[in-house]
Amino acid sequence: MIRYFTSGESHGPSLTGIVEGMPAGLDIHEDEIEHHLVRRQKGYGRGGRMAFEKDRATFQSGVRFGKTTGAPVAMTMPNRAYEKDKNNWPVVMAKDGERGDVERITLPRPGHADLVGTQKYGFDDIRPVIERSSARETAMRVACCSFARKFLETLGIQIGGHVVRIGAVGYHSWEESRDIADPLIEGGAHQIYNRSDESDVRCLDDDLSAQMREEIKQRRKEGTSLGGIYEIIVTGLPAGLGSYVHWDRKIDGKLAQVIVATQAMKGVEIGLGFESGHRQGHQVHDEIIYENTFKRRTNRAGGIEGGMTTGMPVIIRGVMKPIPTMIKPLKTADLDTKKEEDTRYERSDVCALPRAVVVAESVIAPVLANAILERFGGDSMDVIVQRYQNETGYGHS
Fold this sequence. Notes:
By secondary structure, the chain is an alpha+beta fold. The protein has one domain (about 5-390): Chorismate synthase AroC (Chorismate synthase, AroC fold, 4-Layer Sandwich). It is about 35% helix and about 20% strand. It contains 12 helices and 17 strands. The protein has a 5-stranded antiparallel beta sheet. It has a 4-stranded antiparallel beta sheet with strand order 1-2-6-3. A two-stranded antiparallel sheet has the order 4-5. Strand 11 and strand 12 form a beta hairpin. Helix 1 (about 30-40) packs across helix 6 (about 140-155), helix 6 (about 140-155) packs across helix 11 and helix 10 packs antiparallel against helix 11. The longest helix has 24 residues, at about 355-375. The radius of gyration is 22 Å and the shape is globular.
């Protein structure tokens, strides 16, 4: 099974990632990883750091002559912010010596890990919590998950995401968003991300994109922040991945976990999701038809029934809260004095949702890749591809 780990701080010297369990023989190169890292850095409403961060993950082990070896893959990614300010961050994040005159951060931000993190680990300074809980970590997460993503692409499985709402601006209904997205996925989910990448808010609708930009612009003037909702679509999955037998092997449960386990995510739904609770049964469930194979007439279930994939496109939506760091302060209590104070401002995005789409696309890839490995097995790509082709017919003329 594929697992990955990340290490590093927002303003430390670098991020580090380790991916284990990748089969041998996967054709992959650093430029392919960089492609998604560049996508992650784009988006209207981003903060100043994105102006100088140029992320690139460098393979340190586990890849030879452009193919995985089956051994753990190690990667490093320098933090340009650390290098850019050599008089500050190497001192603030020093690995040796005493704290000395380095400022302690004692004002926890509402909505952030600050307060609970200091309580959990017994810190008298919030800085270690700020540094590790930062969404900067998702850069290495995207790099690590790109291996699973390439694995899926080798089998014809594609992932693409787009924004459906930012603040008060978005599609009025599930059906309206389907009218835009579904025609694109006839050519695979890559059509979704290729099209959404043309918008700086990653929305497929041009009119909504313009309204979303105005919404972000207005909230920036007010000194506040915005969240929203995004949708991730997966095409090419065979039926039967996951399980109805064991609760912890249900594919929708695993997908929901990795979405909510991503910074700033507060909710997830599959298919119609919460809207199902407002509708009658005949407006929710998908009628079954047979056209050379069993299919559903509609896809309100979002490609998953009973904890298993149906063979229809998987549709996942995630909810991202507004960034808790804002120019306009909130009230908090100082760790030392316990007195009420205004929060301090740490540079951040006004709206990070367009960038979060790429992270969400990425983190679901290992879940799906592991479901493939569980069913088809194998330690090398040649074996896995052959088994996959034999059962699903993918790649056979």
